[in-house]
Amino acid sequence: MTAIAAGGATLLLRPRARALMPAAASAGDYFTPQQLERAHAFRAPQRRIGLVSLALEGAALVLLVSKAPPVLERLARRPLLGAAAAGAGLTVGTTVIALPLGAVSERRARKAGLSTQNWRSWAGDAAKSTAIGSVMAGAGAAMGIALIRRFPRQWWLPGAGAVVALSTLMVFAAPVLIDPLFNKFEPLPDGPLRDEVLELAGRANVNVGQVYRVDASRRTTAHNAYVWGLGRTKRVVIFDTLIRDLPDDQVRSVVAHELSHVVHKDVLRSLLWLALVAPAATWLVKALAERLNRAQALGGPAALPALALAAAIASAVLGPAGNLLSRRVEARADTFALDLTHEPRAFIDLTRNLAVTNLADPSTPRIFQLLFGTHPTTMQRIGAGLAWEAQH
Fold first, then answer.
1. Is 225 helix (H, G, I), strand (E, B) or coil?
2. How far apart are CA 35 and CA 347, in angstroms?
3. d(CA 7, CA 277)
């Protein structure tokens, strides 16, 4: 039922606006053999590291479900506070398990020239992320156990509402409360770039909100931009590396792509998708957790490993459908950028430069793209630029 709900939500919310059918394009025509080999040599092991990390975290939850530590039973004396402590502890524990593989991944990124961090900075980011995740997990665990105790048979329904409400609050608050803990955000200063952004927004007939430059160069050489936030916290964010390294026509393509997300309210679309699938997902979590917990009551801290494992399984079921919707949204944004700028060569050059700088692998396995890919592949995006050029 959960997979059907996810597929139905993806079908219902798929972009109606036209997205270009990519023309055929060969990676060898746009990248040298050395560039292709370098990207594959970096990304293939990174994918394996990520999968092993997920497996280790899942194995830890399975172990906790099969043999719950006595401390969880002791925490049951004060169920809600105990649940908060257990939820925070689970987050810290899974983070520590994955930390060595994260360090290996970071070391490889440095050797490849993609990461500019030192170990002190990397450890600081890891500590802040863990602290924030622990607080959120603790609050979520306490809320979840409270709902289970109040609605023992039907808790999954108000639980779905809580998931959507908390996710909406996070999207609204993160740009102003969490993101500044990791990076410095500055409004684009007056000048040619800001003028071009506002001119593009005017042509797109959209209130772009605030446009920020973020000091991404303190961590990476990668290029990127994104749209984030809701209402008064809505913003377009551009990496300082992108502004520094790419010519104006390619920056225009990036900005035009992000404006599509504003025009089509894609952040709201993602929250609406979550609202549609949340009831089926929380029902699945309930059903799985009851089986994993061997029919014991779920209303205490001892049930949290089973609930966490069930939530991880539900996320794995939902992930491919959500990623399919994301790929379609991103493809539509590429078409919107081409229609707005009328600069297919700049778009193609941008896509190529992003792949080279970010070490994107055009030979990503198809199954990996289907399961985890949130954007069209590099060659699909180049093909979209070629198709637009051919039509115009």
1. strand
2. 19
3. 9
